[in-house]
Design goal:
- Helix 2 packs across helix 4 and helix 10 packs antiparallel against helix 11.
- The radius of gyration is 31 Å and the shape is globular.
- The strands form 9 sheets. Strands 2, 6, 7, 10, 11, 14, 17, 18 and 19 form a 9-stranded mixed beta sheet that branches.
- The protein is built from 14 helices and 34 strands.
- It is α+β, with helices and mostly antiparallel strands and 684 residues long.
């Protein structure tokens, strides 16, 4: 099995959580990883200045005040990834096994978790966190095994919800990486950090996407990584110029029966927040004359170093506080930076925190590596006090049940006097009444939560999400249909996403027919119950009429499976006209066009045609005119169906052909009657 394989099954059972990985107050867990030489270091003939043995990391410098050049540090984990031929080589799988599973185990138990990578630019932070397609890092592996856990626990008494978001902090401005058209995206308004009195800091107006499988999270990561701020610097060709935070909100809702003859049950809920942070790397600044692009990198470096300095100040203040045994009141300057404000709970509050320090093995980076290790050594002494994130009513119920059991044991064991026993029984009855009242409150709160969840998912059924400025597209790589209307204001108001697999279009689609089939419901006299089917597979989308239902592509009526291309016009029945959009194909065409124009500078780029309702109807008329009498006879409502045709199909065929000339080919017919309620795409 390859080191980067995501098909590996989880070793052991998720039930076997390690006891030492769960707990309350504990220090931040710190790991150090050293990477191989990069091309620049190898070209300069650098020597390795790092040694690792067990939990000890040693830096080999030229000299220090004591006369020797050795700097020793002790951490929870030390990963030797410098030489693949070494028997101690630490792969991506080993790093995830120690750090990623520790984070997941605590998240499954209801704790908040934060894992952040720190180090100079080019030290291997992004590789450890994200990796590459052949050797995936911590973030995609955490997402994959999260859904493995969900699949292993899914039954009638427990439900899971996974909600993701992704931001970057670029020059102290927060950007939403999962929706760059939304406020906070590039060119938009800056998103603001707010602080909730109980849950702590959060980003207001941030896009939150619900994920039901690892493939959905994978697409979200691809979208976020495309929008990240990356540039070439003197020390790293693909340097991250901003801090990136990928957040997963993991909710577990379980129905527990209280037992006894009452038949009562209660719903318990645990919510965990998993923050996976890839910090931008610090880099030496130069005082030489800079070009325009170098000045931009210089300003970015200043902002990065400022936020990392604020993080260092917070860690030092928390270190002093832990050294004093919390007896001395130490001010922690969380609000000096957007980064430290968002990581407030992770650094000194309610979270299990893991720090991965990435260092370079080259002797020319000795000072940066030493600074990183000193930074990590201080962080290791910080203590956090994580608690299980459960509903207040759940805690009250648990405490009440424990109190009832205690009172029952006291009454049964001591055989007290009648007056004392009566008082105890009264107390038990009072607690029982309080328990039932709490149960009623939980049922009301659960109902309210379920209604909110349904409302939240309504626009997402159509592939959209709610933002501060209306509806916005979540997945900008998924093929989809947009409506065309004679009224320009009604054009492109409806979006139908074509999810991987099969999507059925019709007037009477039963979404319970097959959970793996998506559906689009259209209304009209010429729309059959099952009219046509879209098949999204192998990066291509095909359309096929069902039992001869009237369907046109680019003005031609089709009768068999047809491949769709970017911009194709589709007419379903007689009153529904769409344009097919494939963002991936469109991007590829634009790239090829730009490359061609670069190679042929004398060529004049033609403006693309505007594909609107007029374009589609004119095309349909032109094709009808070309086909002449044969076409007219084929479309005639008097044409009798074949004996093998199904009666329902013949009926809709006849209705469609009757209305084709009057509704589609006639410019005088207005089409403002398509209601917004026709948006009905979603998973069946």
């Amino acid at each position: 099995m390859s080191e980067g394989s995501m098909d590996r099954k989880t070793q052991g059972s998720w039930d076997d959580l390690k006891e030492d990985s769960i707990g309350g107050e504990e220090s931040i867990r710190v790991a150090v990883r050293v990477r191989p030489f990069n091309a620049r270091e190898a070209a300069r003939g650098c020597k390795c200045c790092v040694e690792m043995s067990g939990q000890k990391t040693t830096l080999l410098g030229l000299s220090d005040r004591n006369g020797d050049g050795r700097k020793e540090f002790t951490f929870d984990h030390c990963y030797w990834s410098h030489d693949r031929s070494s028997p101690d080589f630490a792969s991506q799988e080993q790093v995830f096994s120690d750090l990623g599973r520790f984070a997941l185990n605590n998240a499954f138990s209801g704790y908040n978790v934060c894992l952040f990578a720190y180090g100079q630019t080019g030290s291997g932070k992004s590789f450890s966190m994200v990796g590459n397609p052949d050797d995936k890092g911590i973030v995609p592996r955490v997402a994959s095994e999260l859904f493995e856990f969900i699949d292993s626990k899914r039954d009638d008494h427990i439900a899971f919800e996974v909600v993701t978001s992704m931001i970057e902090i670029y020059k102290e401005q927060i950007r939403d990486l999962l929706n760059d058209k939304k406020q906070g995206g590039r060119g938009g308004e800056e998103l603001k950090v707010r602080e909730h009195p109980k849950s702590g800091p959060y980003v207001a107006g941030l896009t939150a996407l619900t994920a039901t499988s690892y493939s959905e999270i994978e697409r979200q990561l691809e979208m976020g990584n495309r929008n990240k701020s990356i540039a070439s610097t003197h020390m790293n060709d693909v340097s991250s110029r901003a801090h990136t935070i990928f957040s997963i909100k993991f909710c577990q809702t379980q129905l527990q029966h209280l037992g006894g003859e009452s038949g009562l049950a209660r719903e318990t809920k645990k919510v965990s927040h998993i923050n996976l942070v890839d910090l931008a790397g610090s880099e030496r600044q130069t005082s030489k004359q800079l070009s325009a692009s170098e000045q931009q990198r210089f300003k970015e470096g200043i902002a990065i170093n400022k936020s990392l300095s604020a993080l260092a100040n917070c860690i030092f203040a928390l270190y002093k506080q832990s050294q004093s045994g919390n007896k001395e009141k130490v001010h922690v300057p969380y609000r000096d930076s957007q980064l430290t404000w968002l990581l407030k709970e992770s650094l000194g509050g309610n979270a299990k925190t893991i720090m991965l320090a990435a260092i370079s093995p080259a002797d020319i980076n000795f000072e940066e590596s030493l600074s990183t290790l000193q930074y990590a050594s201080r962080a290791k002494r910080i203590k956090t006090n994580a608690i299980v994130n459960e509903d207040t009513n759940d805690r009250i119920i648990r405490e009440l049940r424990a109190e009832i059991e205690r009172l029952r044991k006291e009454v049964a064991g001591q055989q007290p006097a009648q007056s004392v026993q009566s008082a105890a029984d009264e107390e038990v009855q009072r607690l029982r009444a309080q328990l039932l009242e709490s149960q009623r409150m939980i049922e009301e709160m659960s109902l309210h939560w379920q209604e909110q969840l349904r409302e939240q998912k309504k626009p997402q059924v159509a592939g959209l999400s709610v933002s501060g400025k209306g509806l916005s597209i979540d997945d900008q790589t998924c093929p989809h249909l947009v409506n065309l209307n004679e009224d320009p204001l009604m054009t492109e108001c409806l979006v139908y996403f074509l999810a991987p697999g099969q999507t059925i279009v019709g007037s009477d689609v039963n979404e319970d027919d097959d959970a793996k089939i998506s559906w689009i419901e259209l209304v009209g006299q010429t729309i059959a119950p099952h009219h046509c089917a879209f098949d999204n597979s192998d990066s291509h989308v095909y359309i096929e009429p069902i039992m001869g239902a009237v369907t046109f592509v680019n003005g031609r009526r089709i009768s068999e499976r047809t491949l769709l291309r970017q911009g194709n016009r589709i007419v379903v029945g007689s009153s529904h006209i769409f344009r097919f959009n494939d963002p991936m194909e469109a991007a590829r065409v634009r790239k090829e066009r730009d490359e061609y124009l670069l190679q042929h500078p004398n060529e004049i780029a033609m403006a693309p045609a505007v594909i609107d309702w007029t374009y589609a109807t004119d095309e349909l008329k032109a094709m009808s005119s070309q086909e002449g009498d044969t076409r007219a006879r084929a479309l005639s409502p008097l044409a009798s169906p074949s004996k093998t045709s199904v009666s329902s199909t013949a009926t809709f065929d006849s209705q469609a052909t009757t209305m084709e000339h009057s509704d589609i080919l006639s410019q005088s017919k207005t089409r403002k009657d398509i209601p917004h309620s026709e948006v009905g795409s979603g998973s069946g």
